[in-house]
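Hi all, posting the design record for the shared folder.

TITLE: backbone redesign
STEP: 1 of 1
STRUCTURE INPUT:
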């Protein structure tokens, strides 16, 4: 039997979760067969299944990830990609890498985003993931294989690697993926 899920999101993101005239909230509820009970003041969200037997038993868990993604700065359209079984969310806590120093967190956020957003854009183009740098976190949404590559690239930046090295790593991984898909295509034809 599906269980109730509880989570908290930043209060400034509650409006995004609800949407104009409640449209985003209703859309999420319809797609996931869940009810969202949102406390705007506290930023708490309770997720309850609509039915005893859900078409997708993972629905409440997926809804939790969708709500969490919106809370971490993603727009609802991108967050809704998490309905797909092959798409995952990963949240990297910057404090685990640089401590609680606001200056260090701001510096690392700047390095991850890059001048005029170029680094974030390159990670997106090379891996196909969506990335949000919000608060003290970097969140990534994508299929598992690409998500892990993007996460490794972000962690390289957080561990002090030069951007050039990170771009080289991404280029190498992209080539490896192309070769892998090429091999799979050849194997399917044989």
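Okay, here is what came back for every position:
SEQUENCE:
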């Amino acid at each position: 039997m599906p269980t109730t899920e509880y989570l908290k999101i930043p209060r400034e993101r509650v409006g995004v979760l609800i949407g104009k005239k409640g449209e985003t909230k209703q859309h999420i509820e319809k797609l996931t067969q869940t009810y969202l009970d949102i406390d705007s003041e506290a930023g708490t969200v309770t997720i309850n299944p609509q039915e005893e037997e859900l078409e997708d038993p993972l629905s409440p868990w997926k809804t939790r990830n969708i709500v969490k993604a919106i809370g971490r700065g993603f727009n609802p359209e991108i967050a809704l990609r998490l309905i797909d079984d092959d798409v995952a969310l990963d949240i990297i806590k910057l404090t685990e890498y640089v401590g609680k120093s606001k200056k260090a967190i701001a510096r690392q956020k700047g390095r991850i985003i890059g001048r005029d957003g170029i680094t974030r854009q390159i990670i997106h183009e090379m891996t196909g993931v969506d990335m949000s740098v919000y608060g003290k976190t970097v969140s990534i949404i994508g299929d598992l294989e690409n998500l892990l590559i993007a996460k490794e690239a972000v962690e390289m930046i957080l561990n002090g690697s030069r951007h050039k090295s990170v771009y080289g790593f991404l280029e190498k991984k992209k080539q490896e993926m192309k070769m892998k898909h090429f091999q799979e295509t050849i194997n399917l034809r044989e």
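COMMENT: The chain has two domains: 5-83, 87-189.
Let me know if anyone wants the other runs.
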